[in-house]
Design goal:
There is one protein chain. The radius of gyration is 23 Å and the shape is globular. It has helices spanning 3-29, 38-51, 70-82, 86-114, 117-129, 131-138, 143-162, 166-186, 193-203, 233-262, 272-279, 293-303, 311-336, 338-352, 365-388, 394-410, 421-445. The longest helix has 30 residues, at 233-262. It has 448 residues and is mainly α. It has one domain (3-213, 230-445).
Length: 448
Amino acid sequence: MTPAYRNSFALLLLAALAVRLAAGYWWQSRLDGRFGMGDSDSYWMLAQTIAKGKPYAYGADHARVFRAPGYPLLLAPVVGLAGEGLAGVRLARAEATLLGVLAVLALWWLTRLLFDERAALWAAALASFYPGAIAASMLVLSEAPFCPLILLQLALWTKAWRAPGCRQTAIYACCGGLAAGAATLMRPSWLLFTPLAAAIGMLVWGKQRSSADVAPPPSVVKTARPSRRRSCYPRHFQIACWMLLGLIAAMLPWWVRNARLTGRFVPTTLQVGASLYDGLNPNATGGSNMDFISRFVAEQRRASAHSTAAPGDAEIAFELQLDRRMREAAITWARANPARAVQLAGVKFLRMWNVWPNEPRLSTWPIRLAVLFTYTPLLLLALWGTWKTMGRGWPYVLCWLPAVYLTLLHMVFVSSIRYRDPAMLAWLALAGGVIRDWGSGMRTRHGT
């Protein structure tokens, strides 16, 4: 990087930090010293149990597998350092701000791997001022650490794909799997992305490779023979194996802990049933409304009233059975009402990619117009970048695959524009390439 480029990039990161700090301060000034989001309160309470050395459990029912421990572990040092009051809340927002800047840095690296430094700077600029990315950095929610981790995984996957040797491929792929595991511990919905993406790579993009897919080292560019078009299925398989090994290594402590508590394999949490019923029930609208929880809890209490298990075992059994009850209720309803379930899937798709917020309290016209005129151009740029790079190989596919995965996932569960922001950040790498190409074309036409 030239000194001018380094200075521009440093100023951009400082601007991203300043914007996020200002947004977090503004949001906190509207509240009464707390977070303003129910999910934030749950993460905060679990962080307090970790900071105080208490058993990892949530709520009056002492739910042991309520949330994955990733984000509470990040918040625990904040609680220990600044306490549980307003100072701790502000420090938690500052931590989220730093994680948001790391997301900008990770996107810059990913785009630089795919294009060049100019495209990387454009992508980082888009992410620095994208309202969805700013919101993810000012709220104390798991999106704050989730975004940089999935971008890191995609960058490491790209490095593994372009690595010249088996050793480098294994190192990058395994590190990418560790990043995927860490992202899953932040947001459990990410668990299936790695195996599904690897399967898609082998089945759809495993037959041929282009010269842009695997870049030879600079030292052998002049002497390397022209590469033959051949199947790259083995390379996909090699990377998938190492990446899944890293994913398993990251998830293993949580899996072992859950198995010891529950006596069975719990891949993520025991909130899958509640989340599934939230999206598939007679009163579902596509958005989240957890008012049904109290009814299911009461039903499960009546069913467990005559249990003779010890208190600790009874709590775990209650949590398992409650999750199973809600999961079965959601599946039963969907089977009985397939047309409504399909209709809800369409509603959820529109909610996720809506051009303005779905929530009534955020649907004032100034907010609507702000989202419309910032999100829509970026989406169009990302779609254009997807079209332009469709034939350039697997690393470019990785940029839009998270959008497909998260969309399909939230067409089953509840949906909101909040869930598209991590996917949009990855997609902005392709948008940066489009702007770079436009700039190159303008310079060529003007002879500069």
